[in-house]
Amino acid sequence: MNIKEMNINQIEKLAQEIRTQLIDVVSKNGGHLAPNLGVVELTLALHKVFDSPKDKILFDVGHQSYVHKIVTGRDKEFSTLRTRGGVGPFLNPEESEHDAFISGHAGSGLSAASGIAAANPDSKVIVVVGDASIANGTSLEALNDIGGRFRNLIILLNDNEMSIGENVGSLSRFFSKLLVSKTYMNLKDEVRTLVRKAKIGKRVGGVLKRAEHSVKQFFAPMSICEDLGFKFLGVIDGHDSNELIETFEKAKIMEGPILIHVKTQKGKGYSFAEKNQEKFHGISPFDVQTGNVRKGSSSYSQIFGEKICQMGEKDKDIYAISAAMVKGTGLVNFFEKFPERSHNVGIAEGHAVTFAGGLAISGKKPYVAIYSTFLQRAYSQLIHDISLQNLPVRFIVDRAGIVGEDGKTHQGVYDISYFLSIEGFTVIAPTTCRELEEALEISRNHTNGPMAIRIPRSTCYDIDGDKPLEFGKWKEMEKGKKNLYIATGSMLNELMVVKDELCKRGIGGTIVSAAFISPLDENYLVDNVKNYDNIFVLEEAYDKNSFGTSILEFLNDRGLYKKVYKISLESAKIPHGKRDDLLFENGLRGSKLVDRIEGCINANK
Ligand SMILES: Cc1ncc(C[n+]2csc(CCOP(=O)(O)OP(=O)(O)O)c2C)c(N)n1
Ligand SMILES: CC(=O)[C@@H](O)[C@H](O)COP(=O)(O)O
Ligand SMILES: [Mg+2]
């Protein structure tokens, strides 16, 4: 039955069925469970009142758009969520006409929605924004622009008092204050009614008006919204379908921009997610009965987290900075042990970078741990605030390479390209866990400019008897003829796995472990490339302005004309699916990697 024809009982029943479906599918495929459990009633009420796709419904980040997907024609395929070719993790206009704009990064919702509102004056445009994402710099720029304009725009502040973990910052405190505004609304209405009904002398009316004024002063935060040019409705119970529908009906006939403050509970309806909202924000497959996730081996993020704690113990100048990803980047222990040297700046990557610049210029040793995809947001700060002053800020670029199920908005495929385009960065992609620890040791006393250490979203890999990492030096792991394989980061492991197959096919060669992407090991190249017919450069990154490109340019500049094959990602738009499958599909793993290398050699014969 169409949701528009449902009565409140039917909607409430549907909400429960959808909750069961969410828990079932996410327990199998992994995904953003708690955010979606929190917006079930809210999303159903939106679709009851508004007419998608004529009216445009957007979700900032879009990690909470599963219910929207289910009620807009993707119910049957929902079991394929986040799998290759299946329903995607975020909003995607290529997936459905009901997805008004792509999403995945926090803070783009308000800007996109206001643009859509400007272009579609006959449609209502509704954008759902979380209490953490609304404090993002881009959101604030948009709010500044939206206030007092965009009559068809409705902003739904989904306030669950959580980011992925604890929500931080003064704006988050401001929104908590707004919670009192329900009392304020009632009070204000009562005072207004009194003034209207009283029909009494000016004097009493004046007193009541002043009373209204002081109530307003007392509950100032809400009045600020009105002063900023937004009609304010709230605070609404985000799990009360009746109240939601009534409010949305009201908003539908009002002139905007309207800000509706909805209070929801992250994880609502699944006890484990209600109790541990951070764990269930984004979770890998789990057991529905116990809420337990299968324990895996250590990740590179964990190794970073352990090492930075050891280093922070000895070196009191070490600071750790996170942009709302404390757990994901492995920084939980450091934040607990050294709160005075830990800064979670919220979803504010640009600010995180420049803040670290401020620490570095004051002689501190900042470590900024940010996912590769989110650091894209701070490209300008990397240039203007870090590179131009050659500041020794250390960047731990997490989730570098293919991340998997989070898909094209989250793949960390651009960081090598952007770091190599900025002057002065040392760029390291450790090939093993031990090299990550060694790179971190090197970084501690590296004062000659900024440094980026990129780590993949994968479990640890180590090689017995591997030689220690030296600044700017590559290592030969295997000696062979004709072909020179230079592998950085995660690609060393991929190469080692297929080396026997390469030999079997008669295309074995020398294998070089190249953690240093910049500076290149120029001496190694000059001394060795002449001995080989083919040079293969392997990296889990986008092909343009890549490690391979920089080797190619270097050899060309030196007149060392060799055939260099870039074994990298030919497209940066990598869809969602399992990381290993995507590596395979893109010719960076297993037999596809071997075929690709063989194909390069055959094509050049
Ligand atoms: C630019 C950017 N930085 C970081 C993230 C990672 N991230 C995804 S959701 C999220 C928290 C969002 O909190 P909120 O907006 O309150 O939504 P909720 O999950 O609580 O519904 C973060 C930090 C992101 N998607 N985009
Ligand atoms: C929606 C979002 O941006 C994050 O929740 C992200 O999905 C986290 O990724 P990890 O699971 O790799 O930490
Ligand atoms: Mg939130």
TrEMBL record:
<keyword id="KW-0784">Thiamine biosynthesis</keyword>
<feature type="binding site">
    <location>
        <position position="160"/>
    </location>
    <ligand>
        <name>thiamine diphosphate</name>
    </ligand>
</feature>
<dbReference type="GO" id="GO:0008661">
    <property type="term" value="F:1-deoxy-D-xylulose-5-phosphate synthase activity"/>
</dbReference>
<feature type="binding site">
    <location>
        <begin position="104"/>
        <end position="106"/>
    </location>
    <ligand>
        <name>thiamine diphosphate</name>
    </ligand>
</feature>
<dbReference type="GO" id="GO:0005829">
    <property type="term" value="C:cytosol"/>
</dbReference>
<dbReference type="InterPro" id="IPR029061">
    <property type="entry name" value="THDP-binding"/>
</dbReference>
<keyword id="KW-0479">Metal-binding</keyword>
<comment type="similarity">
    <text>Belongs to the transketolase family. DXPS subfamily.</text>
</comment>
<dbReference type="Pfam" id="PF13292">
    <property type="entry name" value="DXP_synthase_N"/>
</dbReference>
<feature type="binding site">
    <location>
        <position position="160"/>
    </location>
    <ligand>
        <name>Mg(2+)</name>
    </ligand>
</feature>
<comment type="function">
    <text>Catalyzes the acyloin condensation reaction between C atoms 2 and 3 of pyruvate and glyceraldehyde 3-phosphate to yield 1-deoxy-D-xylulose-5-phosphate (DXP).</text>
</comment>
<keyword id="KW-0460">Magnesium</keyword>
<dbReference type="GO" id="GO:0009228">
    <property type="term" value="P:thiamine biosynthetic process"/>
</dbReference>
<dbReference type="InterPro" id="IPR009014">
    <property type="entry name" value="Transketo_C/PFOR_II"/>
</dbReference>
<keyword id="KW-0414">Isoprene biosynthesis</keyword>
<dbReference type="Pfam" id="PF02779">
    <property type="entry name" value="Transket_pyr"/>
</dbReference>
<dbReference type="Pfam" id="PF02780">
    <property type="entry name" value="Transketolase_C"/>
</dbReference>
<feature type="binding site">
    <location>
        <position position="131"/>
    </location>
    <ligand>
        <name>Mg(2+)</name>
    </ligand>
</feature>
<comment type="subunit">
    <text>Homodimer.</text>
</comment>
<feature type="domain" description="Transketolase-like pyrimidine-binding">
    <location>
        <begin position="298"/>
        <end position="463"/>
    </location>
</feature>
<dbReference type="InterPro" id="IPR005477">
    <property type="entry name" value="Dxylulose-5-P_synthase"/>
</dbReference>
<feature type="binding site">
    <location>
        <position position="349"/>
    </location>
    <ligand>
        <name>thiamine diphosphate</name>
    </ligand>
</feature>
<dbReference type="InterPro" id="IPR049557">
    <property type="entry name" value="Transketolase_CS"/>
</dbReference>
<feature type="binding site">
    <location>
        <position position="63"/>
    </location>
    <ligand>
        <name>thiamine diphosphate</name>
    </ligand>
</feature>
<dbReference type="InterPro" id="IPR033248">
    <property type="entry name" value="Transketolase_C"/>
</dbReference>
<keyword id="KW-0786">Thiamine pyrophosphate</keyword>
<dbReference type="GO" id="GO:0016114">
    <property type="term" value="P:terpenoid biosynthetic process"/>
</dbReference>
<keyword id="KW-0808">Transferase</keyword>
<dbReference type="InterPro" id="IPR005475">
    <property type="entry name" value="Transketolase-like_Pyr-bd"/>
</dbReference>
<dbReference type="GO" id="GO:0000287">
    <property type="term" value="F:magnesium ion binding"/>
</dbReference>
<dbReference type="GO" id="GO:0019288">
    <property type="term" value="P:isopentenyl diphosphate biosynthetic process, methylerythritol 4-phosphate pathway"/>
</dbReference>
<feature type="binding site">
    <location>
        <begin position="132"/>
        <end position="133"/>
    </location>
    <ligand>
        <name>thiamine diphosphate</name>
    </ligand>
</feature>
<feature type="binding site">
    <location>
        <position position="270"/>
    </location>
    <ligand>
        <name>thiamine diphosphate</name>
    </ligand>
</feature>
<protein>
    <recommendedName>
        <fullName>1-deoxy-D-xylulose-5-phosphate synthase</fullName>
        <ecNumber>2.2.1.7</ecNumber>
    </recommendedName>
</protein>
<comment type="pathway">
    <text>Metabolic intermediate biosynthesis; 1-deoxy-D-xylulose 5-phosphate biosynthesis; 1-deoxy-D-xylulose 5-phosphate from D-glyceraldehyde 3-phosphate and pyruvate: step 1/1.</text>
</comment>
<dbReference type="GO" id="GO:0030976">
    <property type="term" value="F:thiamine pyrophosphate binding"/>
</dbReference>
